User: What shape does this take?
Amino acid sequence: MGYLKPEQIIAVPDREVIELEVPEWGGTVRLRAMSGRQREQYVKRLDILDDKGNQKALDLDKSPQALLASFCLVHKEVDPQGNEVGEFVQSFSETDGVMALADKCIPALDNVFKACMELNGFIVEEVAEELKEVASE
Assistant: This one.
């Protein structure tokens, strides 16, 4: 395997898309791995790092589960014949979409959140433990 040129790296569609059954919502959703930029936005929006890069306590009012889901839930547009066309697009905005998702039932949101965590390489056990600690305070 040879060395890649910048244009080759940029051209590779490297964001995995998976399907997840969500019985509470009556069907299947698609989740796409976040880009590096989205991951940075996610961490910044949660405000979990201080100025020195050290981890701070997680603020549950920022809806970490719904926020992550808003970055990862994707769909394709559908033409008049019902065929999917084009590229995957983010299904929910990171503002109104987060609040709408935060109002969904906990089992469904937990299911989507866990899948998003694994898809994006977050360490599920560490985040789950921190969520428990914050919730018990």
